[in-house]
Specification:
The protein is built from 5 helices and 6 strands, in the order ααββαβββααβ. By secondary structure, it is of the alpha+beta class. A 6-stranded mixed sheet has the order 3-4-5-2-1-6. β3 and β4 form a beta hairpin. The protein is globular, with a radius of gyration of 14 Å.
């Protein structure tokens, strides 16, 4: 049974994994979760998952959920990065084809990734 489950996980498309991560962030009370398909706009990633977080503790909780998802789905973190020294403004988790942006409300408004990547396609995660 475990082999079949692992086989199923490895057969998921990148979009399916990105949707699942976005739903995971929404279920974890992430605010204004956006899944953005930018695959045709660059050569280094396919999807952005953009999430507004309330606090450092909220970020840590969501990060823990992401790490569990990564382990269960045979993914790998290529890079994590903090835009501010205390890490409360913008935390980036690079999974290669999927990049997760956990941002404070202020950072999200300032950097406005959806506007910056306006040629990307917003995907409805509830379909």
């Amino acid at each position: 049974m475990l082999f079949q489950e692992n086989l199923h996980n490895s057969m998921k498309t990148t979009e399916e994994k990105a949707r699942e991560i976005a739903k995971l962030m929404e279920d974890g009370k992430g605010k204004d979760v956006t899944l953005l398909d930018i695959s045709g706009l660059n050569s280094w990633t396919d999807y952005f998952v953009i999430v507004t977080v309330n606090s450092s503790a909220h970020w840590q909780g969501l990060y823990k959920q992401v790490k569990e998802y990564i382990k269960e789905n045979d993914l790998e973190i290529h890079l994590t990065n903090k835009k501010s020294p205390d890490g409360d403004d913008w935390n980036l988790i690079d999974l290669g084809a999927i990049v997760i942006h956990l941002m404070s409300e202020q950072a999200r408004q300032f950097y406005d990734l959806e506007k910056l990547w306006h040629n990307g396609k917003i995907i409805d995660i509830n379909q």
